[in-house]
Design goal:
The complex is a heterodimer of chains A (about 400) and B (about 375).
Chain A: E1 12-15, H1 21-31, E2 35-40, H2 65-71, E3 75-78, H3 87-96, E4 99-102, H4 108-111, H5 116-122, E5 127-132, H6 143-150, H7 152-155, H8 170-193, E6 197-202, H9 203-209, H10 212-221, E7 240-244, E8 250-254, H11 258-268, H12 280-285, H13 287-298, H14 303-312, E9 317-319, H15 323-328, H16 330-333, E10 337-341, E11 347-351, E12 355-357, H17 374-380, H18 386-394
Parallel strand pairs in A: 1-2, 1-4, 2-3, 4-5, 5-6
Antiparallel strand pairs in A: 7-8, 8-9, 10-11
Helix pairs in contact in A: 1-8, 6-8, 6-9, 8-9
Chain B: H1 2-9, E1 15-18, H2 42-46, E2 52-55, H3 61-71, E3 76-80, H4 84-91, E4 98-103, H5 118-125, H6 127-130, H7 146-160, E5 172-176, H8 177-185, E6 214-217, E7 220-224, H9 233-245, H10 269-283, H11 287-297, E8 301-303, H12 307-312, H13 314-319, E9 323-326, E10 333-336, E11 342-343, H14 361-369, H15 373-381
Helix pairs in contact in B: 1-7, 5-8, 7-8
Classes of the chains: A alpha/beta (about 400), B alpha/beta (about 375).
């Protein structure tokens, strides 16, 4: 699909962010058609350029698959933000931009003149976005901290032992949706009023939203939600659990509805035919026995084959997909995971958005090489000539 | 449902259409005070704030006409492809609205006809297999994640079409629900460039051992993150400096070549040593003391909050994260941390209680479709509404 048909075609984003939360936000906008210019520098690399996995397992600043994934479709300008003359590049970029996004540790943007007053002095109707872990008081950090502060980490683990938390830097992936919709609301408001906005989203506050039923339980029941035993993912359903399969992988099966249970029971046979299990109340009372009968059966099957068989019989089931499983899942190969060609002569996979626009998949693009678009952007967006560009490079404003 | 909540939070007028028996989402536990009831579901209550409810039975000819008639009078229509409402709207798509259609799996993929529940969709997202390390089984959130992962993704797509006021186009957005949930699992750098295409592997998938990052302290648990890799060397040096200053680790510990530990797990002697020292250092300190040390020295540390801590957090209050929200059954309001963003002159959050089943049916159908009391009574008598 060509970009001009996408809803954010013509929207201009100046991306001063790095690592995950900011780049993931601006990738949403790029995938919806916005033009995103990412400011980086060789002296202060986006850490994701140094994180794997790398193409052919060989490290290199343009070889990080994670970087390509978070920055697909953006343009890269390499500028030393601390250089006294950085404004000669940044100010034209700010004048160009509808939206400026930063994710510096609290205080850093101000020192660089890139806080809201500094940016608004250059463009009065700009939409300025700051994102942090929990605001100024929490300082800088990563999404694992956001998960701890917002209550998510506490909810994941075995009761009475150290919390295990959700995977990795959880709020780094939760928050981008909230930042993106705030930007979209601000763009609509600007279109209606001509006024810019300042947007401040913290990862921890975004993370709380994904836990709303727990918030309600605390607020209206006065009960503090606690982690559940790992073998009891849903106490109101039975059977509904993860069961181990022959090769040590796990499959989630939810046979709680009578219809699903009868299908499951017909497949499992044996102990599951016990009359007591015919009713939900009977199954709840004998949960341990029901789960044992099912896991004795699942251990004889390969997880993938079992998934197909159960689904063919109308039983909700899916392998508890590992990252390896995700990479080779035919369901995801249709559109969600797709291979892009890189100049290094290799292809790598990136993840597409979950949405299709008018049936069309969003364009698949790689992430930029460091500074790949510096000259082009300085010429076309900033209006600088080759002499000036050479001077800035000589003065090490460009890195 | 949550996508429409986010639109309502930004001021949209949202009507939730339900069958006469009520939305199935009303039946999702847990319930207020653990007592079930159509207005007591905590998920339902938290994602239908400030909406209006209109009932109609899509299995009846009248219900189908009402549904397509209503759909034509809204800017945006959201529905599940596999649902009684979805069947009606797919057969007669509204000509003027933006439709946002939800599919459990890729509608063009081999799993398009899979049946799902929250548990199954979560397993397919990859998140439970990543969570829970180092225990050896997938770990699920005790609160449903799919409504939020999917709803917030959908809200991004829908709102992108609403940027120009008055310019809604009759576009169509298809949301792959598993795809939306994957975004989370992919937050670990795990893109799989080297994996061969083809069948699922027959080998067990590797579960990396993972590093513990929560530690028992004097007033609960605190998170201290060990991360090895060039970009994070300063963080590890900072943590080591703290450990050395406390006398827990030797004075030359900050000089450790951290980069050489990249990719190492707890089985590595040096990593195990560091875990031991962190364990010893935090044991007698409070969450606040360890967090303050992290801020002072420059390493990653945070208190592990439970929901009572979140509600009591002065920092969240000072930032303006709390907004008044009505009790699910109406009446009193309570300040809840539902304001997810500070935006100039915009206060996102709809705070009113969720609607009762069909609470606004007559009002919606009379104002939008011009039905009179006689017609509404006749439809009600036949259980259409």
């Amino acid at each position: 699909m060509i970009d001009s048909q996408l809803p954010l075609s013509g929207v201009r984003i100046l991306d001063l962010t790095w690592v995950m939360v900011g780049p993931t936000t601006t990738r949403y906008l790029a995938d919806l058609g916005a033009t995103v210019i990412k400011v980086e520098s060789a002296g202060r690399l986006d850490p994701v350029r140094t994180l794997g996995p790398f193409l052919d397992d060989e490290a290199g600043i343009n070889r990080s698959v994670s970087y390509h994934n978070f920055n697909a479709g953006k343009r890269s300008v390499a500028v030393d933000l601390k250089h006294p003359d950085a404004g000669s590049v940044l100010h034209p970029l700010i004048r160009w931009a509808d939206v400026v996004v930063e994710s510096f540790a609290p205080g850093v943007a101000g020192r660089l003149g890139l806080d809201e007053p500094g940016v608004r002095a250059v463009r009065h109707d700009v939409i300025m976005v700051s994102t942090s872990i929990g605001g100024v008081e929490w300082g800088g950090g990563v999404g694992t901290m956001g998960a701890a502060i917002c209550g998510a980490t506490h909810l994941m683990g075995e009761p009475d032992s150290a919390p295990l938390g959700p995977f990795g830097p959880w709020t780094d992936e939760v928050a981008p949706r909230y930042i993106a919709i705030s930007i979209l609301a601000a763009l609509r408001r600007r279109a209606a009023t001509g006024r810019g906005s300042y947007i401040d989203v913290s990862q921890a506050e975004a993370g709380i939203q994904f836990l709303l039923p727990a918030v309600y339980q605390q607020a209206f029941d006065g009960v503090t939600p606690m982690p559940r035993p790992a073998d009891l993912p849903d106490p109101w359903r039975c059977p509904a659990n993860a069961y181990e399969c022959a090769e040590g992988r796990w499959i989630a099966i939810d046979g709680s509805s009578d219809k699903s249970f009868e299908s499951l029971r017909a497949m499992v046979g044996g102990d599951l035919l016990d009359e007591r299990y015919t009713t939900l109340l009977g199954r709840l009372a004998c949960r341990g026995e029901v789960d044992l009968a099912i896991s004795n059966w699942t251990r004889e099957w390969g997880a993938a084959e079992l998934e197909r068989q159960l689904q063919a019989h109308g039983v909700p089931a899916h392998v508890a997909s590992s990252t390896t499983d995700l990479g080779v899942d035919d369901d995801l190969r249709v559109s969600m995971l797709t291979s892009i060609d890189l100049p290094e002569g290799r292809a790598c996979d990136v993840v597409r958005r979950s949405f299709r626009w008018n049936g069309q998949l969003d364009p698949v693009r790689r992430g930029p090489r460091l500074g790949e678009h510096t000259d082009e952007v300085l010429r076309d967006v900033c209006g600088l000539d080759d002499v000036e560009i050479a001077r800035l490079r000589e003065a090490r404003v460009l890195t | 449902m949550y996508a429409a909540q986010l639109l309502a939070d930004f001021g949209a007028d949202v009507v939730v259409v339900e069958p006469p028996s009520g939305s199935s989402a009303r039946r999702i536990p847990p319930f207020l005070d653990d007592v079930p009831g159509p207005d007591r579901g905590l998920l339902w209550a938290s994602v239908n704030r400030g909406k209006r409810s209109c009932t109609l039975d899509p299995a009846t000819p009248d219900g189908r006409v009402l549904l397509t008639g209503l759909a034509a009078r809204f800017d945006v229509v959201l529905y599940d492809r596999v649902s009684p409402f979805g069947n009606v709207l797919e057969a007669a798509p509204p000509a003027s609205a933006l439709c946002c259609v939800f599919h459990p799996f890729d509608p063009d993929g081999p799993k398009a006809d899979y049946v799902t529940t929250e548990l199954v969709l979560a397993a397919a997202s990859g998140a439970p297999a990543l969570a829970g390390r180092p225990i050896d089984r997938p770990l699920f959130f005790p609160t449903p994640q799919s409504p939020f992962e999917i709803g917030s993704d959908a809200a991004v797509a829908v709102m992108s079409a609403l940027v120009e006021p008055g310019a809604v186009r009759p576009d169509r957005i298809d949301i792959n629900q598993r795809g939306a949930m994957l975004a989370g699992a992919f937050s670990e750098p795990l893109v799989v460039g080297a994996a061969p295409a083809g069948a699922l592997p027959s080998e067990p998938s590797p579960r990396r051992p993972g590093l513990p990052n929560t530690y028992r302290c004097s007033d609960g648990y605190v998170q201290v993150s060990l991360v090895f890799g060039t970009s994070f060397d300063p963080k590890m040096t900072a943590l080591a400096t703290w450990l050395a200053d406390l006398g827990v680790a030797p004075v030359d510990y900050p000089g450790t070549p951290w980069a050489s530990m990249a990719g190492c797990g707890p089985e590595d002697e040096r990593v195990a040593q560091m875990i031991d020292w962190v364990t010893a250092a935090v044991a007698a300190r409070t969450r606040a003391e360890v967090t303050a040390a992290g801020a002072h020295y420059g390493f990653f540390a945070a208190p592990v909050h439970d929901m009572a801590d979140v509600m009591a957090s002065e920092r969240f209050h000072r930032r303006g994260a709390f907004a008044p929200v009505e009790h699910p059954l109406g009446g009193s309001t309570t300040e809840l941390p539902l304001s997810f963003a500070r935006i100039t002159e915009v206060v996102p959050v709809a705070g009113s209680r969720p609607p009762r089943i069909g609470e606004h049916t007559t009002g919606v159908l009379s104002s939008l479709l011009g039905l009179d009391h006689h017609q509404l009574s006749a439809l009600y008598a036949q259980e259409v509404i």
